[in-house]
From TrEMBL:
InterPro entries the record matches: FAD-bd_PCMH, FAD-bd_PCMH-like_sf, FAD-bd_PCMH_sub1, FAD-bd_PCMH_sub2, FAD_lactone_oxidase-like, Oxid_FAD_bind_N
Protein name as annotated: FAD-binding PCMH-type domain-containing protein
PANTHER family the UniProt entry points to: D-ARABINONO-1,4-LACTONE OXIDASE, L-GULONOLACTONE OXIDASE
Annotated organism of origin: marine metagenome
Pfam families associated with the record: FAD_binding_4
GO function terms (MF aspect): FAD binding; oxidoreductase activity, acting on the CH-OH group of donors, oxygen as acceptor
Gene3D superfamilies attached to this UniProt entry: 3.30.465.10, Uridine Diphospho-n-acetylenolpyruvylglucosamine Reductase, domain 2
The FAD-binding PCMH-type domain, residue ranges: 10-179
Signal peptide: none
Amino acid sequence: VQHKNFGRNQVFQTSAAYTPADEREVLQILDRHRGQRIRAIGRLHSWSEAVLGDGVLLDLRRLNDIRLQPDGDQFVATVGAGCQIKRLLKELDRDGATLHSLGLITEQTIAGAISTGTHGSGRHSMSHYVVGVRLARYDASTGRAFIEELSAGEQLQAARCSLGSLGIILSVKLRCRAQYNVQEHFTESRRLSNVLDAETPFPLQQFYLIPWRWSYFSQHRREDARPRSRLAKLYRLYWLGVMDYGMHLLLLSLKRVLRSRRLIRLAFRRIIPAFLIRNWKVTDRSSSMLVMKHEAFRHIEIELFVPRDQLEAALGFAQEVIKVAGGRESTLSAYNQRQIEELGMQDDLAGLHD
């Protein structure tokens, strides 16, 4: 059976594939294929090679039960490994609860999200809030599959982001909180220092370096005790039309139909910024405000963690690489060129011209 990930950059063939209905069936599959390579998948949104393998594949989408229990002024949810985040958010919202942290997309399964370090919304990664993991693995003495629950210590810390190496995750317990609202508005700044200074009043913010305009657009965000704005639905439609679909369709048309780098640069410099409404302050539920329709277009996303004191240099490097890739510069600065050569990535840099 052939499988492809979401970005279509990973293709792999497995010897057998299963979609078990319950934990008992998972154990039966493990015992049947003892000694073989077995891998569980979520929704295959990761771009990395971690999912590759020619052995046995388990798709846990049918393990998607959700149980929510009060825990003081918060909640603890027990969630089946194959439950998608969008379904989890919907079920939590019915009881006035939500997740502490969200990534940009909600298509992932909960096990896939924690196992790959999904993070976002200005807080810890999702795996930080995991307080228990139930997994299936082999007993070292008997060789038989059994179920183990991890709730403390280094084993739990490892299971929070294990890339599937500790066993097959069956369910996850994670701390949740009461549903809350977030206020958001856009600003533009030419200086990175201004963006970083805004983290104190807007701890949930995120920002973008806009290519060819070389300014920063910030989504200033913070929790807001006020009710949902009257224009919140209009804002969501605006965001859906302009950012989630409009920007991507524009760039795809310029790249694939008109094949014009000059027009792409113009789009980033003038057209896209013209549609971003500055200082429109809107309050909406966190589960709506902190996500995007990031899955609407196939893409490969690579994330790097950069220390704050090195961020300016890292963004400067990214700007140089984009200029070379876009044909506006023929080479990097001497310092960055030496860095590339030391890493042996000259061919990778040259390949960006293609």
